[in-house]
Design a protein that fits this description.
The complex is a heterodimer. By secondary structure, chain A is mostly helical. Chain A has 37 helices and 12 strands. By secondary structure, chain B is α/β, with parallel strands linked by helices. The two termini of chain B are 22 Å apart. The chains are: A mainly alpha, B alpha/beta.
Chain lengths: 918, 483
């Protein structure tokens, strides 16, 4: 790092100093009108020259030259901005009035940049519009006579006066970028963690949060009720509603000792396996977990579930986060005799990917390299790196070289489904059922295929022409069905690997080209024998066919320089590149990693991060609202064995966590903290899609709490399940649920996640798509949510099961309603509510009995288009799952009394109180 | 001149002051989706209430040529060579050996390849003399309304990636569909209907619903598929076991419980919006079937669209429904037909497919014209890519079919300010690659937005640290297509 930068980077030990640097930076960024500039009393350079060197020249090269000078043969509008002479000469439209020295108002350069010249707003992209500060610099420079010092003089000016920070990075594509300056507040994430001191007897979260509340003169809301906190803790730590007895015990204890009660209950919740499941779901959002590969074939990834269960185990057993990172990135390089390590590297294969005979391997390989580089950046370092693929990053100190250095880490990483014996912790239940279903499916196709082949060979006539035109005597569906069945048999055969001791993993070696990947990929005996050694180079414009400068494996150079990291060069050649990256990421002096995960955990509890974009810690991400707290927690986290569980314990033990979600003076909050960034109240949230389904199953008593194992198939909206779905070569097999309620009614994290077939219930409630990393769940409020909760079969079935369970307890009607409220909402109903519900119950019990449901047959006729002939054809598909299918409890199975109560339960499932967490 | 550099020179004439686009940023916690969107928007439950009012802000960047768009999505990759791009040279080379080289070599280069001529004759139709293959009997009457474009190219020869790119600009999916962007930009014309309606086939395309997803835009901009079979909108109607009066009483009890809950939490607009969404859902149960009911249409209209004829019924219904939706103020309708993936028997497959869409499309154009709607309706017809002039061995023998081709494709426009009665651009003599007026699909997107009064460079949404736009990183208007 150039020494003159050190002054700005001076470490600030205390919290106050930390704040000061932020406000100082803010002052630097404020617009400076001309009067202020001329007050400067430096002698050697004129103000105009300084404006040019410090502001105008960087502006022109960043915003204008791409179209007005970079390519001499394609200068837009003849408007060349490379030097003063060509500027004065003007362009096609404004002739010599582009730059009128001394008169900004008359200069088209200023008017277009200010966007006041209609039809010629520059730069044309609104997103790139200049700030007021920027076009004022331009104005003041023109008014100062538009001086244009030469490069040497400009450099001198910059060295003497520039106040931004130059960041030492690997090497930029351009010198301009290499030496550009960053505002201090945009580099916070690369700086070493600040030492933040907290008085001994204070809870650090409360101390630091209350400080900013005090500054804003905003009193915090009071403490939430014990029942509210019980629900908050239970959903927050396990994603499930509290069990009635546990909540009761908590409420009792809370009266005497709130702090101890919360500690004990949190410990209890985190000891339940549902804690691991819930936190795993959060992580699976980040890594985009799915059980299929997506795109044209959407092939099964039969062993992906072992990675999912690894993540659950890791959170459950509180594997230190640094180990968790290393296992996922480089478990094989760490120790490939350790099964857990190999399973963990499934992380590297979570994105959608396929190679068909229609694709160029080199391109799909590059697609993966791009995907994993960007994903590792987002998941562990809070940096979307995609931007740097084609050009040095516009806002962050991430040169394109860093992108390709990081990509080089993965260029010897190869896919394989390796043998890994089952671990004792892995759930092997239902293996036989799974295999039986797959085999039945294959056998049914084999049988149909055999019959059809016989028919076809009898019917088939010799084609008459010199090329086949389809005059072969066959019906439209004949050839299409053969192709369809072949494809589906192939797809199902892959599913047989689901129960085998195989892991979706990687190895390090040379790249072997595959034309078509449709079966298990084996690891070669010698990974360095066959294939080619991929060269590591910067790809011009991100284009795989345009390699330029060679690179060696590395990571984010700005984190190394600004963070004062003490790092070793990464190995190249046959070395363990990923392990080096994993160690770099988990190095205690890496400024990003701990901040990123601590921020995620915070956002999982509070609905938003201390830094607002958990996947983006760069200049365009939201800056931290409580920088010192983030730093304190990051340091605390590393000091406490990188333990997520301990961090949770710290968070839930704070008074901030216990706050009420309503404030006694809402107008004060609106006035002083309209964005609710100060934590004066606890931010309420809607349950996630998975939480809604799981909570309904928990309330109805149907939830099978088994942990882990092969994916289950819940009931899916039948219209969606039976709707034909196109895949390469035909139509995918119909979606069949598991035959038994206990198999289907497991937690949603275990539901088979098929990229090409989203569960409409989940999608409607904002479950993120499985293609992109999700940093935080979104909540929309759309009418289909109401339709789903009111009208769908699945919600009705939960209501019926809950009613049935309550009726079996044989309590009085009033007591039954009380229990319904307790189970669903975690509280007692008041008299009015009880009366309303009793009335509703009676009214609905008096309605006529519903018709008997029609059982679903084990065959389905479907009509689709035959690709070869462009005509529709019908076929029958066997659905073995429906041979022994046991439906959940149906309206016709229960008494009128139970049906009436089910109507009450249905309404409770629809209520805001059930769906929102205070 | 490359495309990144020319865009702004041309797109610049501002008509209406650009809207407060910034005000729209960050309303990610969106709302409302299927219908009556603005009703919901009025009660935007966004986490940032101050910004809520702008959720329905809309407006054009310049004088629009078209107010609405009908996108006829010919899924599977229709062959330009057998529809609108005659290549007599192929007759000479029929079944002669074909070699492919270069970057794309490894894709579709298996075995011996051979040229394939079109099985169809071509006719020159209308006073413009535009060429169409013979099966386009009905569309030929509208030749003078068509602006046929031969210059478009895409990046992928795989169906799902190419479909994603055509529909969202991004090959790998996850970004907002064109219809979502258009509605984000223009807002709704009719508060009672969704602004972006998709009429998929009964089987969903490869890549599924991601083809009409809202991506990072608020959920209200999602395409609403009206399903071809079964319930048009999932769960529109209660389970059989729930009687209508039962549902009403459920809603009443729910309303009371929710109101009590809300009263204890004043100012929570999200909870209030949920209350309203239930009333909306309830009304949709009667209103959606009304829109879809074709019973009010006279027999002549039904016949014109080919409804009742088994070959044309499915797409005829989509086209008539599309007209009704557009007429009622839906901004963007996308109707799917296919599957055009004819690797084998072009004559049979494309023949049947053309027949299935020809009469409905012609009837739709006539109907729009007769109602004075065509001028302000941009009609787009295209697939995700075109097809090759050659084929590989199929089942060990030569077959009269074609593979996928990203470098030349089949596309035409009608109405909406496009140059009627013209062919724009050209492919090489064998139709393997576009060689004149060549543009990436992103420029087609930019042009589409332009015709609707939107400037791709201004129609941005801040997400994940970047101002994102349909063209991904900017494109240019294809001037040649404009009337």
């Amino acid at each position: 790092m150039p020494p003159f930068l050190r002054c700005v980077l001076a470490a600030c030990a205390a919290l106050i100093a930390f704040n000061r640097i932020h406000s100082a930076a803010a002052q630097q960024a404020s617009p400076e009108p001309a009067e202020n500039v001329t007050q400067e009393s430096e002698t050697t350079f004129s103000e105009g020259e300084k404006l040019f060197a410090l502001h105008v020249q960087p502006l022109i090269s960043e915003k204008c030259l791409a179209c007005h000078g970079a390519d001499q043969d394609a200068i837009e509008g003849g408007f060349d901005l490379r030097n003063r002479e060509s500027m004065l000469a003007g362009g096609d439209n404004f002739e010599d009035k582009v730059l009128v020295p001394g008169n900004a108002g008359a200069s088209a350069l200023y008017r277009t940049a200010k966007r006041s010249e209609e039809g010629y707003e520059m730069p044309p992209k609104e997103a790139e519009a200049l700030s007021q500060e920027q076009y004022w610099h331009l104005r003041d420079w023109i008014n100062a006579g538009a001086p244009w010092p030469d490069e040497q003089r400009s450099t001198l000016i910059r060295q003497q006066f520039d106040q931004g920070i130059v960041v030492d990075t690997s090497k930029a594509l351009s010198d301009d970028w290499q030496f550009r300056r960053y505002e201090a507040q945009n580099l916070w994430a690369y700086r070493p963690l600040q030492k933040v001191s907290v008085p001994n007897n204070a809870h650090p979260i409360d101390y630091l949060i209350d400080q900013s509340l005090k500054q804003a003169e905003l009193p915090a809301a009071g403490q939430a009720s014990a029942t509210t906190i019980a629900r908050r803790l239970s959903f927050g730590l396990t994603g499930l509603p509290p069990q009635v007895e546990a909540a009761d015990a908590f409420v009792q204890q809370y009266r005497n000792d709130p702090g101890q009660a919360i500690n004990d209950y949190a410990q209890q919740l985190m000891a339940s396996p549902h804690y691991g499941e819930h936190f795993a779901q959060r992580w699976l959002d980040v890594v985009r977990y799915a059980d299929t590969a997506g795109f044209a074939n959407d092939y099964s990834r039969p062993n992906a579930w072992r990675y999912r269960d690894y993540v659950i185990r890791a959170f459950q057993n509180d594997v230190p986060f640094n180990t968790f990172v290393q296992q996922q990135l480089a478990g094989d390089e760490l120790d490939d005799r350790n099964g857990e390590n190999l399973i963990a590297t499934g992380f590297l294969r979570m994105g959608p990917w396929e190679q068909t005979s229609m694709s160029v391997f080199k391109e799909t390989r590059q697609q993966w390299l791009d995907d994993i580089t960007d994903t590792v950046g987002q998941a562990f370092l809070g940096h979307a790196l995609q931007c740097a693929k084609c050009h040095d990053h516009k806002f962050d100190p991430v040169p394109t070289r860093d992108y390709y250095r990081m990509m080089a880490v993965f260029s010897t990483t190869q896919f394989a489904e390796r043998d890994v014996a089952f671990l004792s912790a892995e759930n092997q239940a239902n293996f036989a059922n799974s295999d039986n279903w797959v085999n039945e499916k294959i056998q049914a196709y084999q049988q149909q295929s055999k019959e059809l082949n016989q028919q076809v060979s009898q019917k088939r006539e010799q084609e008459t022409g010199d090329a086949k035109v389809g005059d072969n005597g066959l019906a439209p569906g004949d050839e299409a069905s053969l192709a369809r069945m072949n494809k589906n048999m192939q797809r199902h055969r892959l599913e047989l690997d689901r129960t085998k001791p195989i892991a979706l993993t990687v190895y390090t070696g040379k790249t072997i080209q595959y034309r078509n990947v449709s079966t298990r990929l084996l690891m070669p005996a010698n990974p360095w024998n066959k294939g080619q050694f991929d060269t590591d180079a910067i790809l011009a414009g991100g284009n795989i066919y345009s390699p330029t400068d060679p690179v060696t494996p590395g990571a984010l150079s700005a984190a190394e320089s600004l963070g004062n990291m003490n790092h070793q060069p990464f190995p190249a050649s046959r070395g363990k590149r990923r392990l080096a990256l994993a160690r770099w990421i988990t190095s205690p002096d890496n400024p990003l990693t701990a901040r990123v995960i601590v921020n995620r955990v915070w956002s999982w509890h509070f609905g938003s991060g201390l830094a607002g974009n958990p996947n983006n810690f760069g200049a365009t991400g939201a800056a931290p609202t409580h920088g010192p707290l983030l730093d304190y927690l990051a340091r605390w986290f590393m000091d406490n064995d990188w333990s997520v569980r301990k961090l949770n314990q710290l968070i839930v033990s704070s008074r901030v966590y216990r706050r009420n979600s309503t404030h006694p003076h809402p107008e004060l909050v609106a006035q002083r903290d309209s964005q609710n960034k100060l934590y004066a109240v606890f931010q309420p949230r809607r349950l996630t899609a998975e939480e809604i389904r799981d909570a309904m199953l928990a309330c109805s008593g149907e939830l099978n709490r088994q942990v882990g194992g092969i994916p289950c198939r819940p009931d899916l909206n039948l219209e969606v399940a039976f709707q034909p779905r196109q895949i390469m070569g035909g139509t995918a097999s119909v979606y069949e649920p598991d035959p038994l309620p206990s198999q289907r009614n497991r937690r949603t994290i275990y539901a088979e996640k098929i990229r090409g077939l989203r569960d409409p219930f989940m999608e409607t409630f904002n479950q993120p798509g499985p293609d992109k990393s999700c940093e935080l769940r979104e909540t929309s409020i759309i009418a289909p949510q109401a339709l789903t909760l009111l009208n769908s079969e699945e919600v009705l079935q939960r209501a019926i099961a809950m009613a049935d369970q309550l009726i079996q307890r044989q309590a009085t009607p009033k007591e039954t309603i009380r229990q319904a409220f307790e189970i669903c909402l975690g509280r007692q109903p008041d008299e009015a509510e009880t009366m309303l519900c009793l009335q509703h119950w009676r009214q609905h019990a008096a309605l006529p009995a519903p018709p008997e449901p029609t059982a679903i047959a084990d065959q389905l006729q479907r009509t689709v288009m035959a690709e070869k002939t462009g005509q529709p054809y019908s076929f029958v598909e066997h659905m073995p799952a429906y041979k022994n299918y046991q439906a959940d409890l149906q309206p016709a199975d229960i008494s009128a009394t139970t049906r009436g109560l089910a109507a009450v339960c249905l309404v409770l499932f629809n209520s805001n109180e059930f769906l929102y967490l205070d | 001149m490359n495309s990144a550099q020319t865009h702004h020179r041309r797109a610049a004439q501002a008509w209406v002051t650009p809207t407060r686009r910034e005000a729209l940023y960050g309303i990610g916690a969106g709302l409302g989706a299927v219908a009556l969107t603005s009703m919901l928007a009025a009660d935007n439950p966004s986490a940032a209430p101050a910004k809520a009012a702008s959720a329905s802000v809309s407006g054009t960047h310049h004088r629009p040529k078209a107010k609405r768009c009908l996108f006829l999505m010919m899924e599977g990759g229709p062959s330009h060579l057998d529809t609108f791009d005659p290549k007599p040279e192929l007759n000479q080379r029929h079944l002669q050996a074909f070699t492919r080289s270069g970057e794309m070599e490894s894709a579709m280069s298996s075995g011996k390849r051979y040229f394939v001529k079109s099985p169809f004759k071509f006719i020159q139709a209308g006073s413009s003399g535009i060429s169409l293959s013979e099966p386009w009997k009905h569309l030929a009457k509208h030749a003078d309304d068509l602006c046929i474009y031969h210059g478009a190219q895409v990046d992928s020869v795989n169906h799902p990636t190419a479909c994603y790119q055509l529909n969202t600009g991004n090959q790998f999916g996850g970004d907002p569909a064109v219809g979502s962007w258009v509605n984000y930009g223009l807002g709704s014309e009719n508060d009672n209907l969704p602004g972006f309606v998709v009429l998929p086939r009964s089987s969903y395309p490869q890549g599924g619903a991601g083809n009409w997803g809202n991506g990072f835009l608020p959920a209200k901009f999602q395409g609403t598929p009206l399903r071809a079979a079964g319930s048009p909108i999932l769960n529109l109607n209660p389970q059989q076991a729930i009687l209508p009066q039962a549902q009403r009483s459920n809603l009443d009890l729910l309303g009371k419980l929710n109101q009590k809950h809300l009263d204890a939490r004043p100012g929570r607009s999200d909870l209030e919006a949920r209350l309203k969404s239930y009333e909306l859902a309830y009304r949709m149960q009667t209103e959606v079937p009304e829109v879809l009911d074709l019973a009010g249409e006279d027999q002549r209209t039904l016949d014109a669209y080919g409804i009742g004829n088994s070959n044309t019924d499915a797409f005829g219904r989509k086209c008539l429904l599309a007209r009704r939706l557009l007429e009622s103020g839906v901004r963007f309708v996308q109707a799917y037909a296919g599957n055009w993936d004819s690797h084998d028997y072009i004559q049979k497959a494309h023949g049947a497919l053309i027949e299935s869409v020809d009469q409905p499309i012609a009837a739709l154009l006539a109907d729009l014209k007769q109602r004075g709607l065509l001028e302000e309706t941009l009609v787009v017809f295209c697939g995700e890519f075109g097809r090759t002039p050659d084929n590989g061995l199929r089942g060990g023998g030569q077959s009269y079919g074609r593979d996928h081709n990203a470098k030349a494709m089949c596309m035409w426009f009608a109405g909406g300010g496009t140059k009627a009665g013209h062919r724009i651009g050209a492919t090489d003599e064998i139709g393997a690659e576009a060689v004149q007026c060549v543009h990436h699909i992103r420029d087609v997107h930019v042009t589409l937005l332009h015709l609707l009064g939107l400037d791709d460079n201004h129609l941005t949404y801040f997400h994940a640290g970047r101002h994102k736009q349909l063209s991904q990183f900017g494109g240019e208007v294809i001037q040649e297509l404009l009337a």
